[in-house]
Design a protein that fits this description.
Blueprint: H1 4-9, E1 24-25, E2 39-40, H2 46-62, H3 65-73, E3 95-97, E4 104-108, E5 114-116, E6 119-122, E7 128-131, H4 135-150, E8 153-159, E9 168-176, E10 179-188, E11 196-200, E12 213-217, E13 223-227, H5 232-244, E14 260-262, H6 271-288, H7 290-293, H8 299-307, E15 314-316, H9 320-327, E16 333-342, E17 347-356, E18 359-370, E19 378-383, E20 388-393, H10 394-399, H11 402-406
Helix pairs in contact: 2-6, 6-8
The structure holds zinc ion (ZN).
């Protein structure tokens, strides 16, 4: 016969099934929590860890609006020594929805601010539209194109698949009588120093209105010609004559205030909240032990974390004092703030606030659970550049921010 406590100590704290167990990062490695001192050992089963949390974190960190901020603010993802790579955005395309029906190409500048790239699009047999962040950007882009097309020879560069050792195709286009002709091409290991990059519109983007071709300038200055239903030669002919006839008066530069950005990602509602709630339960288990989080009061949130149903209760933090407190955290740090409010009969409700890349979101972890037996509330600072986690009491956290508390 086994006692209650030995039985529960061999069960996963989430699904309450027996192991096998695997080590679980208290704070997701993808958020900079790859710190050996903050691991749960023999608490989370392999199935929850890999099948559920792994996918959940991937979805939250790579395919949600958070991914955009993360890619721009965090220099590298999980620390894998030499193999550390920059976190990426898993997006099929970066386009901005606009009123014309044709999506605009955008990229993300510092702090994930969307920037409309200067671009010309073929919208009909003889019509085209132009877009840029402003009139100066448009003027400068058209001048660049006009210089490019004045040459009677253009080098186009096409990147080939990873199966090719010579990754780049350099295509020489010659222009005579206003017509571009494919003159020759060669394969090279490195791209030519200058040229026009060729890309194809993704054919899986069904349902979108795709222009026949778009010519655009990337943030790094490179010029890209993207084609869908037209040939490269025809697109070049079209744009060369469009640039010659370009009139700034007839071209409308769109107002880009408050743009709606579609980065072609599938956003799943509630994924981020589930990840934050899981980190909250992990932190409680790490700090207070497994017995605390196996209280039936946490069953509700665990179901939400594991299945997404019901949705995790939470939202953006609106309390200005708390926002100020979290915004005062050192640069390159996430903050997780565990707090409790007293409930009837000596019980407490527990909430967690996650301050990630400057945005504070709260989630409710439980409504009626026992008062924690160790000091509360708690702050966890995650240095996402160096992958170090620091636990602080409210007083320790506040000590670092004296100016805030003098008021
Ligand atoms: Zn489990």
């Amino acid at each position: 016969m086994t006692t209650q406590s030995t039985a529960s100590s061999s069960l996963c704290i989430y699904c309450e099934e027996p192991g096998p167990f695997s080590k679980e990062h208290v704070i997701s490695a993808g958020l900079g929590g790859d710190d050996k001192r903050f691991m749960l050992v023999d608490m989370v089963c392999k199935r929850c860890n890999t099948d559920v949390f792994g996918k959940l974190e991937l979805a939250a960190l790579r395919s949600s609006p958070l991914a955009i901020s993360r890619a721009f603010l965090q220099p590298h993802g999980r620390d894998r020594g030499k193999h550390t790579t920059a976190p990426g955005i898993q997006a099929r395309r970066k386009l901005m929805v606009n009123a014309s029906g044709y999506p605009d190409e955008v990229d993300f500048g510092p702090h994930a601010k969307p920037i409309v790239l200067p671009q010309l699009k073929i919208t009909g047999e003889k019509s085209f539209s132009s877009t840029a962040a402003g009139p100066d950007e448009l003027r400068s882009f058209v001048t660049t194109l006009s210089t490019l097309f004045q040459d009677h020879q253009i080098t186009c560069i096409r990147k080939r698949g990873p199966e090719h050792e010579l990754r780049y195709e350099a295509i020489t286009m010659l222009r005579s009588d206003n017509t571009f002709i494919h003159a020759e091409s060669s394969f090279q290991a490195k791209p030519p120093r200058a040229g026009l990059w060729l890309e194809r519109y993704d054919e899986t983007d069904a349902g979108d209105v795709t222009p026949a071709a778009t010519i655009l300038q990337k943030l790094n200055g490179g010029i890209v010609l993207k084609t869908s239903s037209t040939t490269v030669e025809d697109a070049l002919d079209f744009f060369a004559s469009a640039v010659e006839q370009f009139s700034y008066e007839s071209q409308v530069t769109r107002d880009t205030e408050g743009p709606i950005v579609s980065v072609g990602m599938t956003a799943t509602i509630g994924v981020m909240e589930r990840v934050i709630a899981k980190i909250g339960i992990n932190l409680l288990a790490h700090y207070l032990g497994r017995d605390y989080v196996t209280d039936p009061g946490f069953r509700h949130i665990k179901t939400s974390i594991l299945t997404g149903n019901p949705l995790v209760t939470g939202g953006l933090v609106e309390n200005n004092r708390i926002k100020q407190l979290l915004n005062a955290a050192p640069a390159n740090h996430h903050v997780f703030y565990l707090n409790r409010t007293r409930q009837p009969e000596g019980q407490v409700a527990i909430t967690m606030i996650a301050h990630l890349y400057g945005v504070a979101q709260w989630v409710r972890l439980a409504l009626n659970v026992p008062e924690p037996h160790l000091p509360f509330p708690l702050f966890f600072l995650v240095d996402y550049v160096n992958h170090k986690v620091k636990q602080q009491s409210e007083a320790e956290y506040a000590e670092a921010l004296p100016e805030m508390w003098d008021k």
